[in-house]
Design brief:
Radius of gyration: 30 Å
Number of strands: 0
Length: about 130
Amino acid sequence: MATKKQFVPVDAVREDLRTFNEVVSNVSTANVEKWLTPEFWTMATAAVGNLVAVLALVGWLDYSQVETVTKALTALVGASQVILVNGLLVWKFLSGQQAVKQQIVAAKLRVAEDVMYSRMHGTNNR
């Protein structure tokens, strides 16, 4: 016995695609676009070490200075990492606090609107 094919209405397919597009558009790509990752800092430290080695091979640096310069530049990369990470943390905290304050003000406005609406329409149960 052959089964009868069921066709899905075009409107249903459009609605499914619209829902899918809404879900996909809300997906955060922030993690993909970040470049200040631990891998970046590891690469930066390795690049500094390689740069010092090249400077020593070319003869711009004396071999006795290589270790001192490597330590200094590695410390500089580490310090810049700490400064950037702490700065980003402070920035995120401050922007989060600002968002919370905006939400509180918006909630107070909604309550005030509800109170005024109920007073205007006499739905106040006294």
